[in-house]
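Incident log, support desk, overnight shift.

02:14 A customer reports that sequence design results differ from what the structure should imply. Their input is reproduced verbatim below. On-call engineer (initials T.W.) acknowledged and began investigating.
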């Protein structure tokens, strides 16, 4: 497969091909011009984002006015929050996601032959389940030239700008504490990665509704993972061993990136792939962080919850240890995990070169 190019925020399939994705970039740029968004690149210009990021968190803390009413089941969108995780660097795919100047483009801002980049696929999933003003997107300051253009329709206060990428656990905790600060405590919240392809969005949507309903009935005592039936023995995934064969059940064992032999054993025992799509109440998430990464939680609270803050967000991120949510939290939290078995929906995590190459070779079909 040739190098995938990207002149702005979307990618072509091959370096010598410019499909309709270029028109999408131009339309996105036009929307930004209409909204008064500049074309400058704050990273290369040397402009700091600390005032914007920190004032955003202070505004959230000031405007939090308590707990939302109990809404019962999980099918009402009014009180739900959804978070799209789009702060990763996509280093494993860097050789395939370069622009016309040879610069790596983060994978979530690539389209891989689709009309819009992957991050927009995830946002569309989120907006089917939560109102637009309750969809947060975790982004990376280093990617500003991509998200400022491609996400110009997202309210700026809903873009949670990380000063740097310090792993999935830190990005998720940042978002969870923001949801809490805005009073999002009554309904379950949804976490969606930004690098998934889904052929049958309606099938996935039904499983998400099932997870939201189950989480609402649990009253915040459990976290629900969406588990995918394996089509290959991929050791780069996390694996979930369900407690029973039911559609919604507890988790007997969770293992992140096991060896090839362990994957074979897990699959033969009925294990599912961890999609990293997660549903839980915010306070449940905070409780798991308190049990597994208490120092990280304390550091975030000192920055985001205290007035005046004990440190700025960039200063916090400079000293945060890298933390992986699957390895550092999920593997150590099995008693609190449940899994929702997802019906076949043509799902694939396009996070590795092998999966991406298969996806492109199949004309945009899941691995």
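02:41 Re-run completed on a clean worker. Output:
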């Amino acid at each position: 497969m040739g190098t995938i190019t990207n002149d702005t925020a979307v990618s072509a399939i091959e370096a010598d091909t410019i499909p309709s994705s270029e028109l999408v970039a131009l339309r996105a740029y036009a929307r930004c011009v209409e909204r008064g968004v500049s074309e400058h690149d704050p990273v290369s210009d040397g402009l700091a984002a600390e005032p914007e990021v920190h004032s955003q968190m202070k505004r959230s803390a000031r405007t939090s006015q308590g707990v939302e009413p109990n809404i019962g089941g999980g099918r009402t969108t009014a009180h739900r929050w959804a978070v799209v995780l789009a702060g990763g660097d996509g280093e494993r795919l860097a050789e395939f996601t370069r622009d016309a100047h040879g610069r790596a483009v983060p994978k979530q801002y690539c389209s891989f032959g689709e009309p819009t980049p992957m991050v927009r696929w995830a946002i569309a999933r989120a907006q089917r389940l939560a109102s637009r003003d309750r969809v947060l997107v975790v982004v990376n300051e280093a990617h500003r030239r991509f998200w400022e253009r491609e996400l110009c329709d997202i309210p700026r206060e809903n873009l949670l700008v990380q000063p740097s990428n310090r792993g999935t656990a830190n990005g998720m905790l940042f978002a969870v504490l923001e949801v809490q600060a805005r009073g999002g405590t009554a309904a379950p919240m949804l976490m969606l990665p930004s690098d998934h392809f889904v052929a049958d969005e309606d099938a996935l949507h039904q499983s998400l509704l099932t997870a939201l309903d189950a989480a609402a009935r649990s009253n915040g005592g459990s976290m629900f993972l969406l588990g995918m039936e394996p089509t290959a023995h991929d050791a780069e995934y996390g694996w979930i061993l369900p407690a029973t064969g039911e559609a919604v059940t507890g988790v007997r064992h969770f293992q992140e990136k096991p060896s090839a032999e362990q994957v074979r054993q897990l699959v033969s025992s009925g294990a599912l792939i961890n999609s990293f799509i997660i549903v839980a109440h915010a306070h449940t998430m905070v409780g798991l962080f308190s049990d597994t990464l208490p120092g990280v939680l304390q550091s975030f609270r000192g920055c985001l919850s205290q007035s005046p803050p004990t440190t700025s967000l960039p200063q916090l991120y400079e000293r945060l240890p890298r933390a992986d949510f699957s390895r550092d939290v999920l593997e150590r939290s099995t008693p609190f995990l449940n899994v929702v078995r997802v019906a076949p929906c043509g799902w694939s995590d396009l996070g590795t070169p092998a999966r991406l190459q298969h996806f492109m070779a199949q004309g945009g079909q899941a691995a």
